[in-house]
């Protein structure tokens, strides 16, 4: 079971390695792949060291699964080459997500639609994953008409250079700026670049990916994505309008019985999710669950998840686990 991790020296790539090890994924040989400047560095995995290699060298080593987290351009250029050698690519970039030929997968929701012909599998956007993990079971029960989501996104979602910018600003160090403004002690209402409709790419990912994963284009979604000076994970304030009425007790029961979702909701004890408690954990956490009294059949809730874990690395590894078992990969 040769496994390649393309982008192994990046933030998400590093977490992928941790998750593979934590979940005891059956790796017989690890193939860490990174840019030219990292080639030759040693990556420690399960007590053994592996040298970082170039993409071309990784192809020659014939991995059976390749976890990609090296950006869209790298995925577009190299993912098809891996697929041609009968390697299953699980791609964390946005390159393949909205391609009709590629499946967009959150294992707890729609892994059943995968088949052996799906050699390039798209991993959804981090903010989308935690959203749909909560929406999917509620949609099945009450049918969602409309979702309004405002995100509060960790700097880790931008990458290691953004984390360094935050650290530099907190330590009064003049360094490279990834954001157009200071992020420390600030909130920036822009995640990714703006599109022609006035929304950012991140906001449109929430719209388009949610509809694709849930398999229902009738669900109306609108989003505002905001970058905040935290590192533990992404938070989302979500308002959901259903076609059917509901009781809060029903919502709680459904979410409490949803694999991968943990309900933290006891306002009498100030219990609710927040990024610091979510960091390093694989679940999606939900709290502040309450009826929207301004609109019939509507609900407010608060969703938090470590964007490097379930929002990226953990979801990718779960896909790898599913196809390994289902397709009997060896």
Q: For the residues shown, what is the average pLDDT?
A: 97
Q: How is the largest sheet built, in terms of strand order?
A: 9-8-10-13-12-11
Helix content: 25-40%
Q: Please, how many domains?
A: 2
Give me the Rg, rounded: 20 Å
Q: Could you tell me how far the N terminus lies from the C terminus, measured between alpha carbons in angstroms?
A: 6 Å
CATH superfamily of the largest domain: Dihydrodipicolinate Reductase, domain 2
What is the count of β-strands? Answer: 13
**Which fold does the CATH topology of the largest domain refer to?**
Dihydrodipicolinate Reductase, domain 2
Tell the overall outline. globular
Extract low-pLDDT stretches: none
- CATH architectural name of the largest domain: 2-Layer Sandwich
SSE class: alpha/beta
Question: Quick summary of this structure?
Answer:
With 330 residues, the chain is an alpha/beta fold. The chain is built from ten helices and 13 strands. The chain has two domains: 2-123 and 312-326, Rossmann fold (3-Layer(aba) Sandwich), CATH 3.40.50; 127-307, Dihydrodipicolinate Reductase, domain 2, CATH 3.30.360.
């Amino acid at each position: 079971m040769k496994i390649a991790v393309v982008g192994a020296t990046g933030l998400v790539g590093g977490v992928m390695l941790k998750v593979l090890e934590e979940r005891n994924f059956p790796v017989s040989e690890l193939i860490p792949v990174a840019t030219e400047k990292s080639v030759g560095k040693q990556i420690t995995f399960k007590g053994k060291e592996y040298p970082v290699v170039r993409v071309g060298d990784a192809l020659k080593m014939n991995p059976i699964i390749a976890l990609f987290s090296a950006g869209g351009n790298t995925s577009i250029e190299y993912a098809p080459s891996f697929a041609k050698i009968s390697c299953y690519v699980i791609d964390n970039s946005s390159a393949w997500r909205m391609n009709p030929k590629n499946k967009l997968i959150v294992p707890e929701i729609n892994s059943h639609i995968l088949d052996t012909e799906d050699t390039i599998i798209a991993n959804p956007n981090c903010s989308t994953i935690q959203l749909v993990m909560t929406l999917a079971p509620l949609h099945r029960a009450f049918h969602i008409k409309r979702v309004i989501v405002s995100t509060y996104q960790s700097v880790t979602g931008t990458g290691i250079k953004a984390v360094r910018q935050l650290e530099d600003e907190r330590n009064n160090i003049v360094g490279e700026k990834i954001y157009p403004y200071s992020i420390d002690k600030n909130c920036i209402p822009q995640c990714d670049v703006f599109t022609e409709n006035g929304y950012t790419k991140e906001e449109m990912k929430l719209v388009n990916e949610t509809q694709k994963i849930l398999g229902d284009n009738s669900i109306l979604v609108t989003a505002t994505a905001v970058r905040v000076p935290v590192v533990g994970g992404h938070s989302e304030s979500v308002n959901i309008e259903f076609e059917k009425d509901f009781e809060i007790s029903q919502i709680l029961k459904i979410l409490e019985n949803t694999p991968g979702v943990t309900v933290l909701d006891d306002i009498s004890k100030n219990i609710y999710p927040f990024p610091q408690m979510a960091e390093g954990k694989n679940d999606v956490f939900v709290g502040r669950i309450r009826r929207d009294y301004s609109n019939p059949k509507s609900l407010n809730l608060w969703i938090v998840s470590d964007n490097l874990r379930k929002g990226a690395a953990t979801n990718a590894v779960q896909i790898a686990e599913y196809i390994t078992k289902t397709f009997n990969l060896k």
